[in-house]
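Quarterly update from the structural biology core.
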Amino acid sequence: MKKLVILMSVMLAFSYGAINFVEAGRAGNRQVKQQKRIHQGLKSGELTKKEALRLERKQQRIQKTKEEAIKDGELTPKERLRLERKQNRANRHIYRLKHNEKTK
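Predicted structure, tokenized:
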């Protein structure tokens, strides 16, 4: 009986860790997509070099936040929400800059 309890608690711990890993992976995938959008915008002329640099710096700050959040091996709901909010803001900023009217 004791072995069963230990086995169940170990399995629970691993599954909880896997959920956090998946959540961190989702944040990373989203960040990769946003960086691709920045590079595509620069290539197509929708973004200037200065705009792209600002957006890249924002992505670097989000990456640092993510690394800090998962440093202890756990991504808490509060940390996940904070990351999502930062990514949402970055997403809107990318969209606005890619769709603004450039004056020549």
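The chain has one domain: 2-98.
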